Amino acid sequence: MPMNDDADLELARVVGRALQQLPLRHAPPTLAPRVLQALARRAALPWWHHGFPRWPQGARACFVLLCVLLNALALVGCARLVADLESTPALRRAWALMSAWSEVVISFMRTIPPLWLYEGLAVAAALYAMLFALGAAAYRTLYR
């Protein structure tokens, strides 16, 4: 049953007055020393245990350089693997098998009428929308 704005405002005022009448709660006396101890422990950690922005400039530069070098090494390795693919018989057969399989999949996809694909996408979108709507309804019902 939806409430109007006046009832909502009145409820907010009543709850606000009730909360203002409650006594203040004090923190336990052991809280401050524990917090200070945790902060001191965190400050004593070495620099590599902190986040990347808090690393020294030199360490950050070395890390970025190392990442660039590793990426270049990976690219060179992939290029060499592709070059070796043409010269290795076993890899050539594997490549031929993958090419044949992709041709089978592509020819199978061409036999499916496009209307079926569009209808399948529409059904999937409708199911996703229904799932989203059910989730929103459950959330509103449980956390009102």
Average pLDDT across residues? 90
Number of helices: 5
Helix content: over 70%
User: Low-confidence stretches at least 5 residues in length (pLDDT < 50)?
Assistant: none
The dominant shape is flat
Number of strands: 0
Approximately how much beta-strand content do the residues carry? under 5%
* Global structural class: mainly alpha
List SSEs in N-to-C order. HHHHH
Q: Specify Rg, calculated over alpha carbons.
A: 32 Å
Major beta-sheet overview: none
How would you summarize this macromolecular structure in one to three sentences?
The protein is mostly helical and 144 residues long.
Key structural traits:
single chain; 144 residues; mainly alpha; 78% helix; flat
Chain-wise SSE layout:
Elements: H1 5-21, H2 31-43, H3 57-87, H4 89-111, H5 114-142
Helix pairs in contact: 3-4
Describe this structure in words.
There is one protein chain. This protein has 144 residues and is mainly alpha-helical. Helices cover 78% and strands 0% of the residues. The chain has 5 helices and no strands. It has helices at residues 5-21, 31-43, 57-87, 89-111, 114-142. Helix 3 packs across helix 4. The longest helix has 31 residues, at 57-87. The radius of gyration is 32 Å and the shape is flat. The termini are close together. The model has no long low-confidence stretch (mean pLDDT 90).
